[in-house]
Amino acid sequence: MAILITGVAGFIGSNLARKLLSEGKAVIGLDNLCRGSMANMADFAQHPQFVFHEIDLTDLASYQACVSQYALKHPISEVWHLAANSDIPAGISDAAIDLRDTFMSTYNTLEVMKRLDIPALCFASTSAVYGDLGERLLQEDIGPLFPISNYGAMKLASEALISASVESFLKSAYIFRFPNVIGTPATHGVILDFIEKLKKTPDHLEVLGNGSQRKAYLHVDELIDAMLYIQSQARAPLNYFNIGAGDEGIFVRDIAQLVVAAVSPHATIAYGEGDKGWVGDVPRFSYSIEKLRKLGWRPKLGSVQAVQLAIKQIVADLSRA
Ligand SMILES: NC(=O)c1ccc[n+]([C@@H]2O[C@H](COP(=O)([O-])OP(=O)(O)OC[C@H]3O[C@@H](n4cnc5c(N)ncnc54)[C@H](O)[C@@H]3O)[C@@H](O)[C@H]2O)c1
Question: I want to staple 82 with a disulfide (CB 3.0 to 4.6 A). Which of 7, 123, 138, 299 is the partner?
């Protein structure tokens, strides 16, 4: 049996594919390379158990044709749907981006799964579905949910569609809600953003917002470990879990200082105004991973350690490129 990963050329997708291949699984990976790249898959692209197709998931006919062709020889047991827009500000400027890449990609994935009788779905959701609930502890069953970004809205709509699909044809679904994930190969995010800015202006770093945003960060290795753990342990038809570092997080100003120290120690840091990096940014939230702890998984790294490790890895990765 094979596993289908959408968004395989992206940050999390390429790490997941590598992990599953190392466990002896066969993987078919799909991506339109709008944000991911072949370079992210360079070390496993030729693996005998791996097949890649460049395809836009919003084109249902091509998506269906590609997967059914593969499934003739290798029945597919589960789909990991990771493809989505990962640029939240871009999705605020143009709502069509999240409608297409975040929601329609899910709709079409479910259509293909239904037509080909693929029984299980693992879905990369996000803390953005909760919206801005201030100081309230974000537990999985809190509500009502009113996202404040188009990205969060289209992820929440995707969750709703997955829930309805479990009622009608899916045997099992896993919804993983995670906040900021970091590591390599970085395709977006605050650390990469700071490093790229410092490359352009080595003596000066401009930070979006006043630096008081405080968020929890999880290393990608831990995220994958947690998702596979949940998949192996949770047995309901519809399983939904927060995954995170389980701590209060780290301030953006501290991340800025750590990146400056690693990349350009003499740079000065200039902060913007307000506590939001962009429209749709949730500046602080308190994230519960109690449900996941009860299931038996806990993170090894706190947010600060994850950020320190990711800075080291991203700097090394970029210097090789
Ligand atoms: N990285 C994070 O901090 C984070 C946090 C919460 C949730 N997530 C979710 O995890 C998943 C993976 O995120 P990531 O950080 O690896 O992002 P990423 O941008 O690196 O990967 C997403 C991949 O999807 C592909 N893609 C987008 N639209 C597509 C389409 N229409 N057809 C085919 N491929 C398409 C992109 O080319 C990219 O390779 C996403 O669903 C994201 O919303 C990520």
Answer: 7
